[in-house]
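Protocol step 4 of 6.
Sequence for carbamoyl-phosphate synthase (glutamine-hydrolyzing) (Lapidilactobacillus concavus DSM 17758) entered exactly as in the expression construct, tag removed. Do not edit the line below.
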Amino acid sequence: MHSIYFIINSTSINNNEFKLGKIDHMKRYLILEDGTVFAGDAFGATINTTGGLALYTGATGYQEAITNYSYTGQILAFTYPQQGNTGINRDDYENITTALKGVVIGEGYPLTSHWHAQMTLDAFLKAQRIPGLMNVDVRRLHRHIAEHGNMKASLMDTHDEHAHDQIKALVIPNNQVSQVSTKQPYPSPNVGKNVVVLDLGLKNTVLRELSKRRCNITVLPFDTPSSLIETLAPDGVLISDGPGKPEALVKTIQIVKEIQGHYPIFAIGLGFSVVALANDVSVETRPIAQHQINLAVQEKITGITNFVAQNSAFSLSKNDNLKDLLATFVTVNGDEVVGFRHRYLPIYAVNFDPEAAAGPKDGGHFFDDFIELMDAAIARHRREI
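Step 5 output, structure tokens:
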């Protein structure tokens, strides 16, 4: 066991005053499903955990990633070597709690001296009862997953046969959206268009982008009946990103089938896959899930390239045609459709995060496009009256 000292901001942040803290690090192990072991030092909560392993390749945005419900039930490993140097602040939460199983980082930065920080990463993980592992060769870990594909993993204080048995016994649940979706409807009032948000694991940044455009928002549980949505008379419906397998969302898929054609729909991430399935287009699991903040995507009509963030374990099946859906965005190498619109209905969807927190801001115009889609639907309705 060895000790590491770090400095965190005191309450007198404006005066750049700091106080000295101390963590005692015990050994901890990341054990992969195939038996590979990565040793490092423990931080965060002192508990053992097992979950799916996800690799986040962005250089920034660890707070947003840790509080993103898309990573529900997963051990999140950051492949950029140094994390934690800017601490945790009150403005960058995507949700006020985290649904992660664990955090793995390369070098844990011992100094948190950012004017915006309220606490260290270690203190946050302790408060949320999330175990962490630091001083790990994350680049070797990345190469291993790139070669062998997605797998389950454990964070353990030992690496005996019992630890391996726990990984093998883990069955990743299909009901992860039900764990993180709001249990009750709630409003985010404004004076503009009435937008219903189906919460599959909603990020705060999506609400901020809609609020910037003065949308009067009602957030609903993922399984809200279409009859209740109808009573709210929305100008449009946004289907959020979230965790888990899209095919498990049987109720949400049926809801989309019932409401499409009645309201403009904008779907993001997991919502993208749900809308595809509702239109009889199949999706498949990626060999390696994509969690990055600099994905280059190209608009097919204009040829313009945008850089966006992506957190997705699923893509449209390459062996299936798009039927009534029309590809609008592809990755720059052209091998994957990451955006589509419906040929006949006011629906479009993207398999990336247009709000990009953290990440580039190229995708903000997608929310403007949603506003225009609602404007067109309102104008069409008025002409028909």
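Step 6, annotate. Confidence is low (pLDDT under 50) at residues 1-21.
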